[in-house]
Amino acid sequence: MVNRPKEKKPAKRYYRKRVELLRLIDKIKLWPSRRGLLHGIKTVEIAGAQAKITTHCNKTFWVTDSRNSRAARWLRNKWFKGTCGDCRIPDWKLAKYSSTQFKRHYGATLQKRSEP
Ligand SMILES: [Zn+2]
Q1: How far is the CA of 9 from the centre of ligand 1 (A)?
Q2: What is the pTM for the complete model shown?
Q3: How close is the Cα of 73 to the center of ligand 1, in Å?
């Protein structure tokens, strides 16, 4: 490993637009609430096509896997008014998220079975 100087900006990362919601939230650990607040996810327990999400502000709820749900769209489009004060999402996580891009034809699908 070569020691590189610390980069100020996190590396851009790309995900497919049609990535599955559960894989996406398991990866980026952020949840856009209906009220427009971004929460930090503490745990994701995947059970089939559903997952039990626990946020850092200790809210627990189930989500169903979908590429086109409200949450999936809001996450892709980065629609949020603010961040949850109780979750205390670290700046590096927000920076990482804001440098994440969703592309139709390029990027990780986060789907092991479709990668050769
Ligand atoms: Zn929260």
Answers
A1: 25
A2: 0.83
A3: 19
